[in-house]
Amino acid sequence: MHFIGELILILLITTLLGQLFTRLNLPAVIGQLLSGILLGPAILGLIKTSSTITLFSELGVIFLMFLAGLESDLELLKKYFKLSFSVAFIGVILPVIFMTIASQLFGMKFLEALFIGIVFAATSVSISVEVLHDANQLHTKAGTAILGAAVVDDILAVVVLSLFTSFSHEGGNSGLTNNLVLNLIIEVIYFVIVWLIFKFIAPYFMKYAERIEVNYSVVIASLILALGLAWAADFTGLSAVVGAFFGGLAIRQTPQYKEVNSAVSAIGYSVFIPVFFADIGLSMTFSSFTQDLIFIIVMTVLALLSKFWAGKYTCELFGFNKIDANIVGAGMISRGEVALIVAQIGIAHHLFPEDIYSSLILVIIVTTVLSPFILNNYLKQKATV
């Protein structure tokens, strides 16, 4: 029952701090992130991350991205696919180059430095989604570009990680097999199955779910579909959030999507999503802060600039105005759970020096905590224009 007490504390503090930041005209998600830092080892030490909290956190990000898919405009996603791909591609290349060079300057070997670059290649837009949702900007061209780029970004990051582990002959594999080509074929098959579900299966699946005389049968069916696609994505070596997002897109084009959106929002936002944001803060400690201060500052600045510039200048090339380009750039900054997972793979298989692991985690979390402030600043600029 110890976890129940921790859950009560997390829900109470995330709600209170979320309300405080809302009153300050800032996104509630910032308060939820800071609640984890406050309750965790960094400050009060009341809660430590555990397997149960991690499970709730994983479900939280799945619910969040499923809801993002439910609220996405498919026509806009199609319209901005070229832009999204370009933002994602440049957004993977720039951090890898910047962070690799910087890590080498701090005395690391080339392969160690390259892996640190890969850690910062993937974007986790779950926080950006929340900020955009609160500002009613999820359906705009900037919001759509961020969502589309995030999906492509995740796929590219997995491919880059697969290439690294295949050619360096170090570490575990990042896919279903040790064979890069076979992994890519499996991932292509996954996307073919997603397309078939989207086009043919989801509408009939939801239609038959309506006929079942069980309370919330439509909602249960939608969760089976979303969780199934999330599990399958994770199984093939992709991120579960990709599957959850596509699950939301599939339900979006059915007549039942409003009912599903209402019910899943209640489940997600009341329990799982606040735990996800708090859990990011729970991972933070200041133990290595003074020891590696210069490394932390340099890597944080590069982590912010590499993604921001990739999004901003790519969008400007595609004709976006400066404000929308800045919003896309800011929306791509957050690393979150994706970078944490890649870092954990690296430390488990000795792909970079163990003594900088804590500092690397701190850079990831600081970058993630700063991202909603930066995004909110540009959203406010847009609102005043």
Automatic annotation (TrEMBL):
Pfam families: Na_H_Exchanger
Localization in the cell: Membrane
Gene Ontology BP annotations: proton transmembrane transport; sodium ion transport
Keywords: Antiport, Ion transport, Membrane, Sodium, Sodium transport, Transmembrane, Transmembrane helix, Transport
Transmembrane segments: 6-22, 29-47, 53-71, 83-107, 113-132, 144-164, 184-206, 218-246, 266-286, 293-310, 356-379
Protein's name in the database: Cation:proton antiporter
Topology in membrane: Multi-pass membrane protein
Family: Belongs to the monovalent cation:proton antiporter 2 (CPA2) transporter (TC 2.A.37) family.
Top-level taxon of the source organism: Bacteria
InterPro entries: Cation/H_exchanger_TM, Na+/solute_symporter_sf
Domain Cation/H+ exchanger transmembrane: 11-379
Molecular function as annotated in GO: antiporter activity
GO cellular component: membrane
